[in-house]
Design brief:
The complex is a heterodimer of chains A (413) and B (381). Chain A is α+β, with helices and mostly antiparallel strands. Chain A has helices at residues 11-23, 75-84, 101-107, 114-117, 120-123, 152-155, 189-201, 214-220, 241-254, 263-271, 277-281, 300-312, 346-363, 379-386, 389-400, and strands spanning 4-6, 28-31, 48-51, 58-61, 66-70, 87-88, 124-130, 136-139, 164-171, 173-174, 178-186, 208-212, 231-239, 258-259, 287-296, 317-328, 331-340. Chain B is globular and about 80 Å long. Classes of the chains: A alpha+beta (413), B alpha/beta (381).
Chain lengths: 413, 381
């Protein structure tokens, strides 16, 4: 538990809090919507939680197509604001109703429409951060800049261990003129992934591509009988009608599967924010969680199969399944879901599953986190992921935060 | 077509663990409802936070939608004592029901925490700020103390109900509303109406609500009215939804002005540009998110703008639910200011259809008209 919670209303107030904390060697934890799933904001060493949700001003520069917003602005609020002016950020994570801009930057988040719009790191043009000793630094927005190492990236994904991001400037896009909804049924997961790979190789960038394995197709699309027990792929192509039309043609030429039309995509669009599992299954004694990892195409199927198998092998597992949720010409993000009913200690079961999943990811050359970040849950594997670079990260942390006051313990730092 | 849970049944069979999960088996076969609604909401990661005016403007976890239900759950479980401090998050709710629109279960946080509030209030955890309301309702059946006596017309074809706030604070609106109804060919009449009781309901005193409701229903029913038109959407919600739930019957058909006027303003001419603030009770509790817009859009020559958060995504004025403006007037004001600024980006004049919303914006310096005031300005009267 923290000793105090502060609700600053501007950067100056954040600076004052951080200065006081630094001067007294008190831990500080930046907090946004609290939707992170890895415990990145848990004040495990006590101290001050800095809740940024009262910092939520927005300013749009239409000519430069850049929006400036404070870190505490709610994701949906920001997107809705942009939509009302004819723009979109294109960053639509499942947590958008809950999460904040600061949280997106801190965790290096990505959204459902990332194949077209990219992750948050592709959107941030500039940012302002309060450093561990209380000074504020501004990295102003530029279309591109070649002025030494990209210091913005120091803070994107830093999960509050190097400072507190208080403001950011982000690229915006014009609201899409056209949106095309496509879906396919395939006989195998591999076949569907291969189709998507061909589409991306040709340079098309559908905003959304999601390929569900057999279990998840049954779970999420049970009302589409033709797909039951097979592989469902939903695709959203959007943008300027000329570009969307060309991308649609590429998708239709390259996807080898049975077309199912718009309905499955509409179903996905309608249900994609319905998060009910914790409410329904936790009280029944079911341990339930998700794990997302990324991997290059060459080892994608191997990682998928071995990870599902590894999780199923943990005693007490009811099911393990996945969908491929984010795509790149180089590879894919698999989003695994598991549930179990452990006989003994539920925490042990939970950690055993994570251990099996992370180990399998390493064995298959994947990265242990695609967009949820590291937090406290994944910290014990970060060293393995980064190798000697973990020491570099530690040195950066120590150089910036000599007293270790910023989110101590997070990411294993 | 396969069933919703067939996939899980298949997985349970394959895992060989079906026998180890009797609760899951009972749940997916429909023999177990699962956790109760309050616990379900408390376990949710706040998927309606963006829609909650308190959640957005206050920005605190404790008063976020799931923060409130978590506090309520802990109180119900006895893990928190029902002190005023501990029950205060439950009252930091505008009862706007915006949460219910986004909830995968359709829950309203106000409804979920109400039994816990009632129990705490029954045990003596009552804020001093509420006592005056309760006393006034007990003694006079009216929120603002003893009402001025009025002659009841009891003549006409339509009973026009003003509600306490309009009657007490905005009497001019009532006169204009009657005039507009007359212009439309009706013969409205009023009665010496009492409070609908909803403030007591909002403040955790359901017993008092029921007593007030019974008296009010008697007054309304004895008027012999067949059609009721009311200016306050909270009153309409009480008459139409809460009264039947509590065994109180209103014989007449009850309408809110905005929905009553929908389709009845053909040929009505106006001018100017206004922005509408859709009252939360009308949009969410009464399920009429487009009624005010549709009504005003049918006025020839009037430009009607909607704010960013409109229709089914409207944002409460901050003064709803009876508790927040009494316990935390600063928060109520901050919400009203935020909403007022958003509205006036579209037009200088705000038009709403709720006396409380009008009060909220007016008292924070915005130019606001009730829908009936606006329509009256377009009539010969």
């Amino acid at each position: 538990m923290p000793s105090a919670v502060a609700w600053p209303e501007n950067t100056f107030e954040v600076q004052e809090i951080v200065k006081t904390a630094y001067g007294n060697s008190i831990p500080v934890y930046a907090f946004g919507g609290g939707s992170g799933v890895l415990g990145g904001t848990v004040p495990e060493k006590g101290g001050i939680v800095v809740d940024l949700k009262r910092m939520r001003s927005i300013r749009l520069n239409e000519e430069d197509m850049v929006v400036e917003a404070e870190a505490g602005v709610n994701g949906y609020y920001l997107e809705k604001y942009l939509n009302s002016k004819g723009y979109t950020l294109g960053h639509i994570p499942q947590s958008i109703y809950v999460s904040t801009l600061g949280g997106w930057i801190a965790t290096k988040a990505t959204g459902q429409f990332s194949t077209k719009y990219g992750g948050i790191e592709d959107m941030v043009l500039g940012l302002e951060a309060v450093l561990p000793w209380g000074s504020a630094v501004t990295l102003p927005p530029h279309p591109r800049t070649s002025t030494g190492p990209d210091l913005r990236r120091l803070f994107i994904g830093s999960e509050g261990v190097l400072g507190i991001v208080t403001r950011a400037w982000l690229k915006t896009c014009i609201l899409p003129e056209e949106r095309v909804l496509l879906s396919y049924v395939s006989e195998t997961f591999e076949e569907a992934l291969e189709s998507v790979r061909r589409i991306l190789k040709r340079g098309a960038k559908p905003a959304v591509v999601r390929v569900y394995d057999e279990v998840e197709t049954k779970r999420h699309f049970y009302m589409f009988e033709e797909a039951y027990g097979r592989i469902m792929t939903v695709i959203v192509v959007e943008g300027d009608s000329g570009i969307a039309g060309a991308e649609r043609r590429i998708v239709e030429e390259e996807f080898r599967g049975r077309m199912l039309g718009e309905e499955p995509v509409k179903h996905w669009l309608e249900t994609r924010f319905m998060v009910k599992e914790a409410s329904e299954f936790a009280p029944l004694g079911v341990v339930f969680d998700t794990i997302e990892v990324s991997v290059g195409w060459s080892r994608a199927m191997s990682l998928y199969r071995s990870l599902v198998e590894a999780v199923r092998a943990v005693k007490g597992t009811l099911f393990a399944s996945a969908h491929a949720s984010h795509f790149y010409p180089q590879g894919v993000c698999f989003y695994f879901t598991f549930a179990g009913v452990p006989r003994g200690n539920p925490e042990k079961y939970y950690n055993d599953v994570w251990e099996a999943a992370m180990k399998t990811t390493f064995e298959n050359g994947g990265s242990i986190s695609h967009h949820h970040g590291v937090g406290r849950q994944r910290r014990s594997w970060l060293k393995n992921e980064l190798g000697p670079a973990f020491n570099l990260l530690k040195k950066v942390k120590t150089a910036l935060d000599d007293k270790g006051v910023m989110n101590p313990g997070n990411m294993g730092l | 077509m396969p069933g919703k849970w067939d996939w899980l049944k298949d997985e349970l069979r394959a895992s060989g663990l079906a026998g180890a999960t009797p609760l899951v088996i009972r749940f997916i076969s429909g023999r177990l409802r699962g956790a109760d609604d309050l616990a379900k909401c408390a376990l949710c990661p706040n998927m309606c936070r963006h829609a909650c005016p308190v959640g957005i403007v206050d920005g605190r976890e404790t008063t976020s939608p799931a923060g409130k239900t978590r506090a309520a759950l802990l109180l119900r479980q006895g893990r928190l004592q029902p002190t005023l401090e501990n029950v205060s998050p439950l009252y930091t709710c505008l009862s706007c029901n915006a949460c219910s629109v986004w909830c995968p279960f359709g829950f309203s946080v106000a409804d979920l925490v109400r039994p816990v509030k009632e129990k705490a209030a029954g045990g003596g955890s009552i804020f001093k700020e509420f006592r005056e309301v309760f006393e006034n309702l007990e003694k006079h059946g009216y929120v603002y103390g003893e009402p001025k006596r009025e002659d009841s017309g009891l003549h006409g074809d339509l009973l026009y109900l003003r509600g306490c706030t309009l009657r007490e604070k905005q009497p001019g609106v009532a006169e204009k509303a009657e005039h507009v109804l007359e212009e439309l060919g009706y013969r409205p009449f009023t009665i010496d109406e009492a409070c609908c009781g909803i403030p007591a309901y909002n403040l955790g005193n359901t017993r008092l609500f029921k007593r007030v409701a019974e008296k009010q229903a008697e007054k309304i029913n004895s008027s012999g009215a067949g059609i009721i038109v009311a200016s306050c959407p909270s009153c309409v919600y009480a008459y139409r939804v809460l009264y039947p739930k509590h065994g109180v019957k209103i014989n007449a058909e009850v309408n809110h002005v905005a929905e009553f006027l929908e389709g009845r303003l053909k040929g009505f001419k106006g001018e100017g540009r206004v922005v509408i603030h859709n009252p939360c009770k009308l949009a969410f509790a009464l399920g009429k998110p487009k009624a005010l817009y549709n009504t005003l859009s049918s006025v020839e020559g009037l430009t009607v703008r909607e704010p960013r958060r409109s229709g089914g995504e409207t944002f409460c004025c901050g003064y709803g639910g009876s508790a927040v403006p009494r316990l935390n007037p600063q928060l109520a004001r901050r919400i009203a200011l935020e909403r007022g600024v958003e509205l006036t980006e579209e037009a200088e004049t705000i038009v709403t259809a709720c006396p409380t919303c009008k009060l909220a914006f007016e008292s924070n310096g915005f130019k606001v008209l009730d829908v009936m005031e606006l329509l009256h300005s377009f009539t010969s009267g």
